[in-house]
Amino acid sequence: MDIPYTVHARPDTGLYNAKVGIWLFLASEVMLFGGLFSSYIFLRLGADYPWPIHELRWDLGFINTVVLIASSVTVVWAWAAAKMRQFGRCQLLLAITVACAGVFMVNKFLEYKAKFEHYSVTLTDGSILSGHLEHGYHITFGEVKELNLNIASQKTAVTADPLDYVLPFVEGTVPAFKTAEGKDIILDAAGFAELHAEAIAKAKAEKRDSITVKLTAAAPIKFVFGKTDVFTYTADSAVFRDGTSVTGKLIDDKITLTADALDLRSVPAANRENSLAFDARYLGEEWKKYYIQNRDKEIQAFNEKYSDGKGGTTRDPAKSATFQKHAFGLHIEHQHPPAADAKPGEHGGAETDAHGADAGHGDSHGAKVVIETKDVTFFSNYTPKLNTYYAIYFTLTGLHGLHVIAGALVLLYFLVFNGKMMREDTEHFANRVEVGGLFWHFVDLVWIFLFPLLYLL
Amino acid sequence: MSDSADPAELQKHVKKYLLIGTLLLVGTIITVALAFVELPTHSLNIIVGMIVATIKASLVALIFMHLNHERPLIYKVLAFTTVFVIVLFVLFIFANADPLVDHNFEKALEPAAQVE
Questions:
Q1: Using an 8 Å Cβ cutoff, are A438 and B62 in contact?
Q2: Mutate: best of B81, B102, B107, B109, partner A, most A CBs <10 A
Q3: Are A73 and B20 within 8 A, CB to CB?
Q4: What's this model's pTM, rounded to 2 decimal places?
Q5: Which residue, A173, A201, A225, sits at the end of a domain?
Q6: Which of the listed residues A49, A84, A110, A451 has the most CB atoms within 10 Å of its CB?
Q7: In angstroms, rounded to a whole number, what is the distance separating the alpha carbons of residues A64 and B28?
Q8: Count of structural domains, chain B
Q9: Is a pLDDT exceeding 90 seen at residue A339?
Q10: ipTM of the complex
């Protein structure tokens, strides 16, 4: 098939078709990203919490910006090289462009991974502790003597059975069970299949939609599961995701967080010193003292920096996001706060930290805090569900990342599969590179706006 | 339509691309540096940042994307795009104002009051 106007211009447009096509497409892409940038504006202006500033790795973002700019140069240079019949150089430049895309995506992966591994815990008074879960988050629920399996009589689209949804969370070996009739049963595939068939027969006979099968364990069971492995749990019961319910005793559902930051900006000003985070069970008095000291130092530094010579300031501290962040929050690097005479920004040398019983997990990069769930209103890792800032951050950068991958794949295709066309139908090939390059430049344009808006401002 | 295949012309273009690339890198460094300078209000920081970004974007659009010597058809298409995008942003910015209550629209441009 001979596609017309791949090289020669159409008389009415004055352009080869692909160029008209790509510009129309880019116009639509502008509206796509325009809509998302508008969401960013809307969410930022309407936020009822302090909009995060400098919470992202701007150094990785900067490297990504440099990488994309370099790749924009190489892709348009590749087009010029093709036009000049410099075939080897053209291929090299296309390869560098694709390699830059690879570096960009690797950086993106590192950024996202760091965010997914970082957690934020909002306490009931509005204080926010963030940090890492060195050992994950698990709920221990024990003294379970019976399993109440919930078996539906109709076949469902999704089968969820205790083999996959309950037994994996048993600590230790799974005991043998006895049915309500006293029959011994090992809960493996065969055993469950038999149980299942009997239950369905019974449900059909009794004309019921579902039937509860009670299994008594030979020894008490202790479960260790994650928050999303069960539908619900209380102090004495739990329901797994296949419908199996158990009664027992909640042993532990505390969140062991290695806290690296405390944010008190959402706590009413008068209550910040008495934040729940400074409770004796959590960070304690020493951190409260350090917070007060640090806050007062920041206030003094701000007043000095912006002094208007008449006892006031040229700048409103309530409007300075940087001041608010530094004065009403804390960086936590070790189990204990730095020495009293350290200047703000200086972290007391390692020798001043008490390397006592708490050394170990807590000291690695934060303070170990064991938080009771009754003190928690919200707990999430840094993903779109954390707040609207991260929702728009991941949406914008995620969609942009997909565009980077798509653009790189197209350019890679030209590099790998169009070698023959490059040498024998060079104008056609050059036009392809030009059009692929236009898409690539658009991707760079979006990033030029994304980087400052999300990372810096 | 294809640009002239004159190697000398194109070589000059390549020099220009490298120069523009360097300017873009400088612009990026300026953007990062400015982000750590606290202007009288944070909105000013954002405005300045966006102006620098727009300059960088114009360089990419005009020179890398060859918009400085394109055909009228492309310009016409992009004129529509520009109008629609500006209207889109303006709509969202002013959607934060309630004209029945806010007598001056500056309210729309201020982020919601911080808890103080």
A1: no
A2: B81
A3: yes
A4: 0.86
A5: A225
A6: A451
A7: 11
A8: 2
A9: no
A10: 0.86
Nearest-Cα distance to chain A for B22, in Å, is 9
Above pLDDT 70, what percent of chain A? 95
Q: Which domain holds residue A53?
A: 17-116+385-456
SS3 content of chain B, % helix, strand, coil (to 5): 70, 0, 30
Distance from CA of B42 to the nearest CA of A (A): 7
Type of residue found at B80: F
Interstrand relation of A237-240 and A230-233 (parallel, antiparallel or unpaired): antiparallel
Same structural domain, B7 and B61: yes
On whether both B55 and B75 belong to a single domain, the answer is no
Residues near A364 by beta carbon (within 8 Å), at least 6 away in sequence: A134, A258
Examine residue A7 and state whether it is found in any structural domain, yes or no. Answer: no
Q: Are B58 and B75 within one domain?
A: no
Q: For residues A87-110, b (16+ Cβ closer than 10 Å) or e, as one string?
A: eebbbbbbbbbbebbebbeebbee
- In a mutational test of the B interface, the residue from A267, A314, A319 whose CB has the highest number of chain B CBs within 10 Å is A319
Beta-sheet pairing, A184-185 with A245-247: unpaired
**Pair (B97, B55) in one structural domain:** no
DSSP codes joined into one string, A377-408: EEEEESSTTT-HHHHHHHHHHHHHHHHHHHHH
* Residue contact A50–B114, C-beta within 8 A: yes
Decide if A117 contacts A216 (C-beta within 8 A): no
A154 and A112 both lie in a single domain: no
Residues B112 and B88 in one domain: yes
A72, A275, A428: which to substitute to probe chain B, counting the most B Cβ within 10 Å? A72
Interface residue A63 vs chain B (CB under 8 A): no
User: d(Cα A288, Cα A181) in Å, to the nearest integer?
Assistant: 60
Q: State phi, psi for A249 to the nearest 5 degrees.
A: -135, 130
- Do B88 and B100 lie in one domain? The reply is yes
Residues A365 and A391 occupy one common structural domain: no
Beta carbons of A320 and B39 less than 8 angstroms apart: no
Q: How many CB atoms lie within 10 A of CB A27?
A: 18
Instruction: With CB atoms and an 8 Å threshold, state whether B2 touches A318.
Output: no
What confidence tens digit (pLDDT) does each residue in A15-68 have?
999 999 999 999 999 999 999 999 999 899 889 899 998 899 999 999 999 999
Which residues from A are below 8 Å from B52, CB to CB?
A: 452
Q: Which domain holds residue B29?
A: 1-69
Count: domains in chain A: 3
Burial of B76 (0-12, 13-18, 19+ CB in 10 A): exposed
User: A212 CA to chain B: closest CA distance, Å?
Assistant: 51
What letter does residue A230 receive in the DSSP assignment?
E
Q: Compare all CA atoms of chain B with the CA of A445 and give the residue at the minimum distance.
A: B57
- pLDDT tens, N- to C-terminus, chain B (116 residues): 445 567 788 888 999 999 999 999 999 999 999 988 888 788 888 999 999 999 999 999 999 999 998 999 999 999 999 999 999 998 888 887 776 776 665 555 666 544 43
